[in-house]
Amino acid sequence: MNKHLVVGAGLIGRPLAERLAARGDTVTIATRSGSAAVGATARVLEANDPAAFAHAAMDASTIFLCTNPPYTDWAAQWPPIFEAAIAAASATDARIVVMGNLYPYGAPTGAMTEHSPETTTEAKGLIRQAGWARMRAAHEAGHVRAVEVRASDYFGPGATGTAHLGGSFFTAVLGSKTARVVGKPQLAHSWSYLPDIVTTLIAAADYTGEWGRIWHVPSSTASRTDIVGQVNAHYGTHGKVSGYPQLLLRSLGVVNPMMREVWASSYQFEMPYIIDSTETERELDVTVTPWTGALITTAESYRNKK
Question: Is the overall model pTM greater than 0.85, yes or no?
Answer without folding.
Answer: yes
